[in-house]
Amino acid sequence: MQQIFFNLILAIEGVGANRLRAVLTALGIVFGVAAVIAMLAIGTGAKQSILEQMKLIGTNNIVVEAVVLSEEEEETESDAESSSGKNGYTPGLTLKDAEAIQRVLPTIDAVSPEVVLTTSVIQSGKLQRTRVVGVTNAFFDLNNIEMGNGAFFNDYHAESGRPVCIIGEDIRAKFFSEAEPLGQLIKCGDTWLTIVGVLKRRMAKKENLDALGIRDYNSDIYIPIQTALLRFKNRALVTKSALRQNIGGDVVIVSGGDEPSVNERREESNYHQLDRLVIRVKDSDKLQATATVIARMLNRRHEEVKDYTIQVPELLLQQQQKTQDTFNMVLAVIAGISLLVGGIGIMNIMLASVLERIKEIGIRRSLGATRTDIVYQFLFESVIISLLGGLIGVLLGVFAASTIANAADIPTIVSTWSVLLSFGVAATVGLIFGIIPARRAAFFDPIKALRND
After folding, report:
1. Where are the alpha helices (H) located in 199-312, listed in sequence order?
2. 209: alpha, beta or left, given left = phi > 0 and alpha = psi -120 to 50?
3. What DSSP string runs through 108-163?
4. Is the separation of the CB atoms in 232 and 189 below 8 Å?
5. Contact 37, 394 (CB under 8 A)
6. pLDDT value, residue 74
7. If 438 and its partner were Cys, which of 9, 145, 230, 375 is the partner (CB 3.0–4.6 Å)?
């Protein structure tokens, strides 16, 4: 051990005597390690982001969204239906669709229908526009939403359309910051609702919510879906106002004022009873097949009018993960090439160093140093240069990851294992590419080495 330690000290002195050359030699390792750190940080950040999105959407879910067709799309669909002999009428997305899907398909685990209404909320003199969402208890299960205080809807609430609600944490903070909300009344539109539960805050990044098209669950009020249809609005019902506003297929302004905006007209023409269906499949292997069958069912039930969209978020995220893995692999190859070039650079410089120090090698051999001692000395120098490059590369990689995260708004996570891996790779490169120069130095003839000028 003393002999090895002595050779290590000589190697450190040799590197210190040529600091500038050592730093320049290590540049290939520096950029290679920095690329590895940045690549792993981007890959880990992307994976974490995808896992967070998976938690938001739940697993094995299929999402059916109602689509309100524009006037041009309605005319196109009507022409297509006329040419195919269909009457072009569609009831829209309804509770009967949800019941039929759950009844017919054995692969279905649960179905969560949703009705989303925007209305004014009043409590204790405070007013706010927010969303009131009609749901069943399956909604909370499918979206991994936990109860913070109180209870979910019971069968009596769900079946009879009772005026009760569950509020998100942001609603509690807004209207009940100094009081216990359970049992209190809150007015939504023209209806007073009794609060029976407060949801636990759902931590989620805004970019994840936007990417998946998911609402912020903390800022919504949830009511039983029958309550939404009975006490708020059931778009499946034909009302007198709807008949007055649609005469001969043209929109007629009943009261005075300006012509309604496109969004207002779109909302007025929304005939879908439901805004969204979330369907959970028992087996992830049957996700795509189940989505195909659901599309065929809805196509038949809606008289072949395409007034809905079907998405499988998990499959989209898996495809995104595959794309990210390919990107990471390309980065890994680039980083590997940089390390390879850095290793070759170390070998070239160490070979040149051996030729420069032939006399030093001859003196050490004449004083009793063995070939093993010479191998250790030059091998240690190579490893020290690599570790020096690895240290600078780690610092540069962490800085690069932080810069990328701030400049490109890409999540990056520098993990401990990536730093250890980078150091390990750097040491291995120095060890492998230092063997040839070290062995060449060890096998010099001491007498010829001493004669060298």
Report:
1. 206-212, 225-227, 240-245, 262-268, 287-301
2. alpha
3. EEEEEEEEEEEEEEEETTEEEEEEEEEE-HHHHHHTTPPEEEE----HHHHHHT-S
4. yes
5. yes
6. 53
7. 375
Classify residue 124 as exposed, middle or buried by CB count within 10 Å of its CB (0-12, 13-18, 19+): exposed
DSSP assignment letter at 270: -
Q: Please write the tens of the pLDDT for every residue from 128-137.
A: 899 999 999 9
Q: Is the pTM of this model over 0.70?
A: no
**How far is it, in rounded angstroms, from Cα 105 to Cα 23?**
67
- Is the CB of residue 237 less than 8 Å from the CB of residue 91? no
**Which of 142, 403, 113 lies closest to 272, judged by CA?**
113
Q: What is the pLDDT of residues 324-349, one digit of tens each?
A: 677 777 767 776 777 777 777 777 77
User: Helix, strand, or coil here: 315?
Assistant: helix
Both tokens assigned to 282: 């028992």
402-432 as b/e: b if 16+ CB within 10 A:
eebbeeeeebbbbeeebbeebbebbbebbbe
Q: At what angle do helices 287-301 and 313-356 cross, to 10 degrees?
A: 150
Name the amino acid, one letter, at 450.
L
162 or 259, greater pLDDT: 162
Measured in residues, the chain has a length of 453
| Partners of 118 in beta bridges | 131
Tokens 């279905």: give the residue.
108
Residue 99 to residue 312: CA distance in whole angstroms: 20
Of 278, 175, 180, which is closest to residue 221 (Cα–Cα)?
175
Residue 295: half-sphere exposure toward Cβ, Cα within 13 Å: 12
End-to-end CA distance of the chain: 33
- 3-class SS at 184? coil
SS3 call for 11: helix
